[in-house]
From TrEMBL:
Pfam families: Peripla_BP_4. Its main location: other. Signal peptide: none annotated. The keyword Signal applies. Residues 36-289 form the Periplasmic binding protein domain. This is Monosaccharide ABC transporter substrate-binding protein, CUT2 family. Belongs to the bacterial solute-binding protein 2 family. Gene3D superfamilies: 3.40.50.2300. GO terms for cellular component: cell envelope.
Length: 317
């Protein structure tokens, strides 16, 4: 059987095409995996630190990463998830904007074969995320509440500033606090209002509350940004030396304010632990592990005047 030169040329082109496809497949397989780091907001130093620590751990483990800022907007968060999935990210380290609203984004990623590891904030699903690494906010606020009761000698009027109403941390902290404080009839809550975990909003909210309740004795805040905003409002009203402020997070300015006697106490979270754990779990997932705990609690420690020297921003010294 004789073959024309055209036949041989066509055969060579086909073989070259198959070789090229095989080479590209091998190259794509050998490419380093990527982690998307999607955080609720970068308008809060605490979440900036969380994102930076996650990115640093991903780099240490040999992976590329990129931080996406959801700006506390679930719609923008959805865009980030779609971008991460379509751009070929292999895992998502995730700080949700909303316990309910974020579930669909996690489910979509999981359906696309992209594991999701939640950091600090929880979603209301027991199986959508590969794992959720969360501060034990409830227990942390039980401890703060006991000190609150002791500091006020079981008597006085107080205000509670809540965080984002769609975030489970808001309610876990509030419930932990009230599980103790509500047992003391002498402690009366004169106002409870959301300030969205935001410093400026907390200042404005407390300024308004003080007009109707000028004789309060304490303010319990669901995070440190609100605690600093509350302190600013009290200072402007000439009440900062009379009204005791309690926060939650372990932010640098609050740690210093406790040292200076301006803030009474905070709950020290450990965002570096949560970020590094999430990145490490993603690394383990890439290497074949699948049996992750659905929820992993991270203990919170109370920081006050007599132990503050043991702590720095977002952790122990």
């Amino acid at each position: 059987m004789r073959f024309s030169p055209k036949y041989f040329i066509a055969l060579i082109l086909v073989l070259f095409w198959f070789a090229l496809i095989r080479c590209k497949t091998r190259q794509s397989t050998d490419e380093p995996k990527k982690m998307a780091i999607v955080v609720s907001t970068l308008n809060n130093p605490w979440f900036v630190f969380l994102a930076e620590r996650a990115a640093a751990k991903a780099k240490e483990l040999g992976y590329e990463s990129k931080v996406f800022d959801s700006q506390n907007n679930t719609s923008l968060e959805t865009d980030h998830f779609e971008n991460a999935i379509s751009s070929g990210y292999d895992a998502i380290l995730f700080n949700p904007t909303d316990a309910d609203g974020s579930v669909v984004n996690v489910k979509n990623a999981t359906a696309a074969g992209v594991p999701v590891f939640c950091m600090d904030r929880e979603i209301n699903s027991t199986n959508a995320a590969t794992s959720q690494i969360l501060s034990d906010s409830y227990s942390g606020c039980v401890t703060i509440a006991k000190y609150f009761v002791e500091t006020l000698n079981k008597n006085g009027k107080y205000v509670e500033l809540l965080g984002l109403v769609g975030d489970n941390n808001t309610w876990n902290r509030s419930k932990g606090f009230h599980s103790v404080v509500d047992h003391y009839a002498g402690l009366k809550m004169v106002a409870q209002q959301s300030a969205d975990f935001d410093r400026n909003k907390a200042m404005e909210v407390l300024e308004s509350i003080l007009q109707a309740n000028p004789d309060i004795d304490a303010v319990f805040c669901g995070n440190d940004a609100m605690a600093m905003g509350a302190y600013q409002a009290l200072a402007a009203a000439g009440k900062s030396d009379k009204v005791k402020v309690f926060g939650f997070d372990g932010a640098e300015d609050v740690v210093k304010s406790i040292q200076d006697g301006k803030i009474k106490a905070t709950g020290m979270q450990f965002p570096e632990v949560m970020a590094q754990t999430a990145a490490t779990m993603a690394d383990q997932y890439f290497k074949g592990k699948r049996d992750f705990p659905k929820k992993m609690p991270v203990a919170v420690e109370m920081v006050k005047k007599d132990n503050v020297d043991n702590y720095a921003a977002y952790g122990k010294k």
